[in-house]
Amino acid sequence: MTENGPGQEPESVGDQRLTSLDERLRAIQHAEKVRTASAQKKPEKGYSQGNRVLTELIAGIAGGGLLGWCFDRWLGTTPWLLLVMLFLGIGVAFRNIIRISQERPE
């Protein structure tokens, strides 16, 4: 390609093709930015609440069961404290799940 000096007309076909290519490339880059920006948003509130509900349910049952088992071993009341603490853990888990479900979205 030759350099165009002042007063010389640009190469019409080559420059038009390059300009057209630049415009299409910018449009594609903009579309890609829009697409990837929407994909990088943080998870929705429902996903977070679901994880919290699952954690509360597992922790309530496991925590109650573990405490009941430990107290049974320590006091020799097998299996009664295990059962009582297990049901208390389930109750606490359900209470926390109800609290989570009543939270207002931000």
Automatic annotation (TrEMBL):
The chain crosses the membrane at residues 80-98. GO terms for biological process: proton transmembrane transport. The keyword Ribosomal protein does not apply. Keywords: Hydrogen ion transport, Ion transport, Membrane, Transmembrane, Transmembrane helix, Transport. Pfam families: ATPase_gene1. It comes from the Bacteria. InterPro entries: Atp1_alphaprobac (IPR016989), ATPase_put (IPR032820). One of its GO terms (cellular component) is proton-transporting ATP synthase complex. Belongs to the bacterial AtpI family. A possible function for this protein is to guide the assembly of the membrane sector of the ATPase enzyme complex. This is ATP synthase protein I. It comes from Rhizorhabdus dicambivorans.
